Amino acid sequence: MTDLPMPTVRASSSDDGSPVVPRADGPRPQDAARPDAPLVDRFGRPHHDLRISLTDRCSLRCTYCMPAEGVPWLARQTMLTTEEIVRVARVGVELGITEIRLTGGEPLLRVDVVDVVRRLTALTGPHGSPEVSLTTNALRLPALAAPLRDAGLSRVNISLDTLDRGKFIELTRRDKLVETLAGIAAADAAGLHPVKINAVAMRGVNDDEVVALTRFAVERGYQMRFIEQMPLDGGHTWDRTQMVTQAEILDRLTSAFTLTEVPGRGNAPAELWHVDGGPQTVGVIASVTAPFCSACDRLRLTADGQLRACLFAQDEVDVRAVVRDEALGDEAVADAYRRCLAGKKAGHGIGEPTFRQPDRPMSAIGG
Ligand code: SAM
Ligand code: SF4
């Protein structure tokens, strides 16, 4: 294994202003150089969550994610095979990954997605087998929800930005609202609980549906989560002044519901509130106005085999080259994880003068 430079232990500050300091009770950053060490970055953040993008292809064209035409698809030969994905994930699980989220693009477009789930849930590491979940647009769930559950999938996050057919077409550039709703119902029927519904809030598009979407979810026992739009669209048109903020979302919610904060957020990106006394909750993922970088425990693997420490990272570690080099063993894969972690920054830097949107759109990173 290549020796890594010993990480410097220093207090820093994430860009939400909260200090990023090594945790007294957790793994120490200096442990990161040990071959059997857990995945800890130079700010003392342990990493347990791996997001794996199974494809950059998608059946929708959401405006905040992909351009309408001319998507620069990843070349087929660069995409990781299932064998390669499972190997990279296995090494991650052995290093302490406990949660795997499959994403894309649209992960259910991968033909062997059920087999991928079955193989990932069978991995074991120091903390046992990982929990495997999936983020999807739901279009293939009527056919796949039950087989995915049987393969060990624990739950799903489903994107639904509007309940209005015209707006759905405008937003996703496809006429698929009915199919999306059928997919949500299929996940529920298959017991993939809790069903979480994600909506990216957009000014003048769906911000007037915050209450209706929450009602839709609460009535069915789902958890509604609103996401602040991030600068990750294929068209590079994001404008902070146009973004719907957490504060605005909460204003709309409190006009219709009584919200009580749910304590104990941990590493979760969503801040949660009980709706009208609970038990149902609504969440906001305020990645821009209230970043949670100081608690981030995520790493990402793109469909073409690049490890990324952050959605907004400019650097990637090419683990595809490692797994395709027959001279290299699992230690080199572990080293790729550590090199990726070594470059992880304290925060995403949106709003700082030096911030630059990543070249890859969200669909090619894996949300
Ligand atoms: N196709 C699947 C889906 O839509 O759920 C999985 C991939 S998608 C990239 C994952 C999540 O990223 C979705 O919840 C989507 O709403 C969110 N997303 C995409 N682009 C975004 C952006 N610019 N800002 C915030 N969230 C975004
Ligand atoms: Fe596809 Fe998901 Fe991106 Fe929408 S958000 S275009 S469904 S990858």
UniProtKB/TrEMBL annotation:
InterPro entries: Aldolase_TIM, Elp3/MiaA/NifB-like_rSAM, MoaA, MoaA-like, MoaA_twitch, MoCo_biosynth_MoaA/MoaC, rSAM, rSAM_sf. Binds 2 [4Fe-4S] clusters. Binds 1 [4Fe-4S] cluster coordinated with 3 cysteines and an exchangeable S-adenosyl-L-methionine and 1 [4Fe-4S] cluster coordinated with 3 cysteines and the GTP-derived substrate. It comes from the Bacteria. GO terms for molecular function: 4 iron, 4 sulfur cluster binding; cyclic pyranopterin monophosphate synthase activity; GTP 3',8'-cyclase activity; GTP binding; metal ion binding; S-adenosyl-L-methionine binding. Its EC number is 4.1.99.22. Pathway: Cofactor biosynthesis; molybdopterin biosynthesis. Its cofactor is [4Fe-4S] cluster. It catalyses: GTP + AH2 + S-adenosyl-L-methionine = (8S)-3',8-cyclo-7,8-dihydroguanosine 5'-triphosphate + 5'-deoxyadenosine + L-methionine + A + H(+). GTP binds at R51, R101, T135, K196, R298, L299, R300. One of its GO terms (biological process) is Mo-molybdopterin cofactor biosynthetic process. S-adenosyl-L-methionine binds at Y64, G105, S159, M230. Residues 42-270 form the Radical SAM core domain. [4Fe-4S] cluster 1 binds at C58, C62, C65. Belongs to the radical SAM superfamily. MoaA family. Monomer and homodimer. Catalyzes the cyclization of GTP to (8S)-3',8-cyclo-7,8-dihydroguanosine 5'-triphosphate. PANTHER family: MOLYBDENUM COFACTOR BIOSYNTHESIS PROTEIN 1 (PTHR22960:SF0), MOLYBDOPTERIN COFACTOR SYNTHESIS PROTEIN A (PTHR22960). This is GTP 3',8-cyclase. The gene is moaA.
